[in-house]
Amino acid sequence: MTRVQLQETLEKLKYLDVPISELSPKINGTLLRLIRQVEAEVARKHIKFRPEYYFGTGWGCVDKSISIEIPFWFQNETLMGLEDEMAYDGVEDESEIKMGLRHEFGHAINYAYRLYLDPEWKKLFGNINRKYRDYYRINPWSKRHVKHLPDYYAQKHPDEDWAETFAVWLTPMSAWRDIYGKTPAIKKLLYVEKKMKEIARKEPVNTRIRRDVPIEKVRMAIREFYGADYEDVSPSDQLLEDIDAMKRIFPNGFKTKRNLRDAWKLVHKFSPLLIDRLSGELHIPLQSGRKVIHALESICRTYDLKTRQGDEDEKIIGISMYLSKKFSQD
Question: How deeply is 194 buried, as exposed, middle or buried, from its count of CB atoms within 10 A (0-12, 13-18, 19+)?
Fold first, then answer.
């Protein structure tokens, strides 16, 4: 395992124990950039409305509100890596994230202007109060619906039909006039264009904000959410043993932060001594010994382990005893 792979694995393992409620609710980084890109597409249509975004456990727009839920794993690259490993279909790429944002924006703008009450909307898309089904019959050859998200999602429900049609209309260079010009779906797309021109600079009539399952309310740890074990993330049982050992040697639970120092700095300071012991007494090749101590140092850094000033000798003895036991078993 390279140093980069080691660090990526450690970051994922660390996150497994984090309660979802303790993740940051702030949207930034790549996700914020993608939201701004989609909102720039909206701005080019002269549409004034903007929804509210929040992190939850999946995609969604709360019924009859302007609140868009975005999966928590889009917070950073490490969480996206976990989702990619744990989810059946993997994690969405940037293009797919923008597809999801356009779709959910369609729901939000529908609710914000109560377009679903328009008789023409009902005629084209159906009754929004129709029972929502998780399972629906798909017609892959339907010409009445657009294709945007996978699984012919527009066929699921009138509300989804609208959101998908809006998303296709909004997508730059989607060539929807050419693709759907000779199909019944063109009437829906032309209706979207007409309605968006009508409401473009108008204030929404509904600004209700309502969050379904925000991350602040999700107490389960990330590994519980995925039903994952540490072995699902780590390719090495030995790495898991090293993590457990470092946590035992440098336990948390300090009542005060006074006189604390980073454990990784202690390991780094005494790394020459530890490496010499590995190569001299335990007959571990020098390069392999360096990798072992670097791994211990990385563990301490990733898990932000601490030690009390004055405990240095005790901790180095603890590491030495662990290494002796570890390699005497081999």
Answer: exposed
